[in-house]
Structures are given as structure tokens and as C-alpha cells.
Amino acid sequence: MATDYSQRYLARLNRSPRLLLLKLLNQSFPVVETIRRIERKLAKPPNYRDIPACAITSSLEAGANHFHTHRWAFLENVFESSFHQFLVSNWPRRRYFTAPFDMCKAYDKGFRWVERNPAPDHWGAVMARDAFAEDYPAYIDHHPHLRVLFDYLRSPAFIERVIAFSGRPARLRFNRFQLTMSYPGSSVAPHRDSQQDASSWVSFIFYISGTGGESSGGTAILGDNEFEDVIFEPANLCNTCLAFDPAAPFYHGVRPMAFGKHRWMMSAEYVSDK
Ligand SMILES: [Fe+2]
Fold first, then answer.
1. 45: CA distance to ligand 1 center in Å?
2. How far is the CA of 241 from the centre of ligand 1 (A)?
3. Residue 188 CA, ligand 1 centroid: distance in Å
4. Its pTM surpasses 0.90
5. Helix (H) or strand (E) holding 203
């Protein structure tokens, strides 16, 4: 759950004409969700063949020093290109995502899997029953390439790399996974994440496909919760990644996306037991 929003920023955001369509979509949530649930019920698992091996490149190790110093890092060319290309070409259909329901985090969210949630969250409360995860995110059988990706992210070998990247000795566990789809008007009001009782914590936001440029959906690292003090804001959203420590004192958020832009993102979180 997000905390430390600025009420002044939220009031200003709420008046923005960019959000008109999203407000309409938000209000139609029960109808959109019913349609998507029926579409999911009728959908047949696609027949994917020749899924390339998933691998994250040495861009992770290349960003480690920056992460140790600043508690965030931006990585480029993150996935091996054949797997990245496969992900882009076979991105899940919108019916597998929960429709927008929260103007503070206005986008489609899907494939939720979480082990340890520090606070009750709005998404979990409104999500359709058939979208709940077990060992894997729901509907993984319809998306075997996401199974390959999920297994890679929670593999002991990759977790060892994340521990080295964190620069801290604590053992990390794979704790959270989700995919999102964003479009004009999508935004995330600047906030901090509900704190985990953990000495080490790394959150990865993988940009799979995005228009890029200004106001294109990049998660900014911020010195304040009103977007006045921007420390870093990504503009290249194609096979890149923002890694950050949610326990660090900065905020993060996404400006309302401009017309004509899209962003497909995947996030993964690692946290220590204590
Ligand atoms: Fe957050």
C-alpha cells in the first residue's frame, strides 16, 4: 500500500482534464470487470512455441555501484533481446488485467502474486476471485512465457545476483510480482511504499515496451511528494529497469501520461526476512 501522499497534489491532479477519460473508466469499473471476467472464461490457452530462454544481462551488475551509493539505479538492455522481443510480441491481452479502480494509481494491473504484504491493499480487495494467485499468478497456463520469466525471477541463482546487487548481506526472498498496462492519463501520485520489517529490500520496475520521452509513464525518483524535486525520471522505456530501495527516504511517482503514449511494465520485489 502507498503512504505519504500530498493532499494538495491529489487535489490538483483531480482537477486535470487529462484524467477525464480515466475517471469515466474508473466509474465503469464493475461493468468493465464483469466483461473481462466473461472474456477470461471464454478464452482458450494460446499455443506458444519456441519460447526463448529468459536471462537478465550483466546490466544488473553494471548498475550495482550506483545502487549502493544512491539506493536506486537505472538499467538498460536488461533482458536478452530474444526473450524481450518475445515478451513484447506476446504481451497478455487486457482481459487478464484488473481495470483501473484508484485515481492515485490509475492503470490496468494484472498477474498479481505476493507473499508478504505489509498492509491490506485496495487491489486485493476489489480483484476478481479468478485472478488470485496460488504458486503462480493466475492464468499462467495461458502465458507459458510468463511462467518462464517468473521461474527465472525466483530462481536461487538470480536471487544470489540480487543479493550482490543490494550490497547488503541479508538473504532476500522473491516477494511480489505484477504486470501493468498504462495509457494517456495514467499516473501514480508521489508516495512511499508501506514499510516492510526488513533490513534489505529491492524493488525492480521493468519497462518492457513504452513510447518513451517526456510524460511517458516512467517512475520518477523524487525528493518530495508533489513532483517539485525530481531526482531522476526515466525516458527510455524499452527493455530498461528502474531498481530502487523502497525503504530509502525518497518518494516515487509517475506524472499523468501524455496523449499518444503507452507503457507496459512488470515489477518484481525482493525483501529480507528481517
Ligand atoms: Fe510504490
1. 32
2. 15
3. 8
4. yes
5. strand 201-210
